[in-house]
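[09:14] KT: can someone run the structure on this one? pasting the chain below
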Amino acid sequence: MRDTKESRLLLVLLIAVAFALITVDIRGGEDSPVDGARQAAATVFGPIEDGVSSAVDPVGNAISAVRASGDRHDRLAALEQENAALKAKLGSDDRGRSRLAQLDSMLKLAGEGQYGIKGAQVIGIGAAQGFSWTVTIDVGAHDGIRRDMTVLNGDGLVGRVTTVGPDSSTVLLASDPDFTVGTRMEAGDELGFASGQGDRPLRVELLNGKAEVKKGDRLVTFGSQADKPFVPGVPVGVVSRVDPSGGDLTRTLYVTPYVSFTKLDIVGVVVQGPEKDPRDTVLPDKPKPAPRPTVTVTVTPSAGAPEDGQAPQDGQAADGQVQPEQPEQ
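[09:31] RB: done, structure tokens below
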């Protein structure tokens, strides 16, 4: 149809008629005069509408399913992210609890020895100095760290500072073969020098070759002049073996260190020594020996055995066994 004045007038007329019918239908309600026409139209066009709907619904359902699947995927991804974050938090909390326990133990040791310490964390192992037993810690000159300061943790002597950078330092561990520290036996004045042997016990040479030493005795640091490189009283280890004294001027001991050098995390650098030697006060409490069970053995006489004070019967030995008769001569 061409766009003419008559066609426009016809379109306006049809729209006016449609609005009039809608108005009449709404006002009439159930008694609407156009209800019969609407039902007839429904009868004619209903099957066509159902067919089109049945053809179109699967497509719509598929689209809805895809959208719902996307939503489920998003929710699943969000839950997975939440679970991962929770696991990371739990792992971090476990590590935090472990570090807190190490810090508490170290502060207790420092308090008992009256050491002023600067806390640090091990951030590297085996620095570029070759095969030496060293670790790198995250404090340096900016934190007041200087060369030849004692390093400890909650268990005892860790080592000494050898190299200092602006924000990190290198610590030579007590297990290093080049490491040597003066020691003193617990509850005595026997002095010696402990040297590292890698992953083996420390080797200690006592100055007194006739010193009375036994397995289980404990050692602490003797200390250095001006507390450098070692402050006194830091626990070193426990005697695990004593070489026989052969009349030498010194006596050799082997000491298991308190510190596990393969599991270092939180350490402390002693930036201020104690006012007086703490002696043995920093050593941990000795473990109580486990009670040894007492075994009582009760002997029950065998059947037929003679009572005390009675001679065995004829043909019966003292142990209750019957002896064979001897043939007559």
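[09:33] KT: thanks! Residues 52-56 have pLDDT under 50 and may be disordered.
[09:34] RB: yep, looked fine to me
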